[in-house]
Amino acid sequence: MIKHFIIIIFLFISLSGSTNDLKFLTKEEIQWIRDLPRDIKIGITQVPNQILLSKNHNYKGFSIDLFHIIEKKLHLKFQYCYFETWEKLVSAAKKNQVDIIFLAQKTTSRLQYLYFTDTILTLQNKLIVNINNKFHTLDELKKHKLAITSGSALQEYIHYYYPEIIIIPTKNELQSLKYVVSKKADATVLELVRASYYMSKYNLNNLVISSDIEYNYYLSIASSKELPELNLILSKTLKKIKQKEIASLKLKWGYIKEKKAFLDKQTIIYLSIAFGIIIPFSIYLFIINNRLKKEIQEKKKVLERVVKLRDSKLSQMSEIIGIIAHQWRQPLNNLSLLVQLLVSKHKKGTLDDKLMEYFESNSKKQITLMSKTVDDFRNMFQINEEQEVFDLKIMINNLLSVMQPTLNKYKIQIDLHMKDDSYLLQGYQSMLLQIIMNIINNAKDALIESDKEEKIIKITLSRSGNEKVIAIYDNAGGIDEEIIDKIFDPYFSTKKQKNGTGLGLYMSKTIIEERMKGKITVRNEKEGALFEIRLT
Description:
This protein is 49% helix and 20% strand. It has 536 residues and is α/β, with parallel strands linked by helices. It has 4 domains: 2-121 and 220-252, Periplasmic binding protein-like II (D-Maltodextrin-Binding Protein, domain 2), CATH 3.40.190.10; 125-215, D-Maltodextrin-Binding Protein, domain 2 (3-Layer(aba) Sandwich); 264-381, no CATH class; 388-535, Histidine kinase-like ATPase, C-terminal domain (Heat Shock Protein 90), CATH 3.30.565.10. Strands 1, 4, 5, 6, 7 and 13 form a 6-stranded mixed sheet that branches. It starts with a helix and ends with a strand.
């Protein structure tokens, strides 16, 4: 009798302790874990040093150690499902044969069937070539062969941004490196930890790093959209893991980020670039302001509209400048490192012509990249008063690639649905682009103010008869029914606390209905507002 009593007390204490350990979860999430009919399946494949397969078929690596910590935090057991190639793993995730992909890059296509946690690993990709090749950038590889793992996010990126590069699909990164060694391919793209592992283990020689590329890996734990609770639980659990534990795992498996050194020379570079932007921009604003003052003197009746139009434009420009600043961060850092190298060699008395040529060449590359960023933005937002034929799908993808860093900052997910391959339209592309950007920004602001843990903007492109329909929906709670019929009125704004001009949606409606002969509407649905643009 006493023995049974002691067992009951022990079980009670164990269950109570387990519940206390999970106090960072809601009662519903804890119950969801307890009600699991089976172990959670994690899809894995060999990716040094994230997943490594030993001879006796045991798994080790950064991701395995991380999931062991998560297992302890959640008091559950994961089942690891090994796949020979990354392509087979992704295919299994699409078919819901696994619940989790150990670490994956977030892409537009993957967002259709996967949720992602915050970034866990950030990895710099390198262009790796045969020692006898002289390719320095992806642009130089046009019409040449690039070996890339089939089904990877990198393959998707290269295919979209560098369509003239000949992609040689491989089953894994090891095969990609071997293709470069044997000259079956001219180059491959890989991050250092994986490249070093394969080259050392398989004695691969005659390979060199040519340069960094602008596409980095921002790796997160991905989970099936069929199990939305799992993504929330994983995200909360990762936040409970101490940063020192994550840093220790990174050090253990070779994911070490060099500390930035700050020198006076670097500060001078930053200030020079900053003033190079601010002074011309200030002059531009000064000219615009003077023009506005003259218009105010000549036309007092339109004073309020002119001022509000200016504020609206400046707000949009501020958003664009913020995005440009994000894109410039990496080349600025690279320039800083080049200058530090130059200063260091000069102090040591080892500065020679070869290093100066290296400095000149690589500096030009970074400056060209920054210049290309500005040109891309200018071309994207340049107003064309003449109608043109363009593809809505390409336009929206280009816009989202620009806005993604800002949306990521506030943990806002984009759920993109495009049913057809092409949506050709004749109209004013740049005006339509700015209208869609304005609606997405409004949704972003509403989501930031909301208390939603999972913030989503859903964009759908479809056809209805002869019409192309663009639907933009957010889950921020919707628009007050008392004012929803007024939001397209001039000067009406729900952003008085943020100096809203009330002209954005009014001008959007005017351009869509008067210039493009379309229709724009808004209504509340379920958890948020749905904007719909119809064009022929």
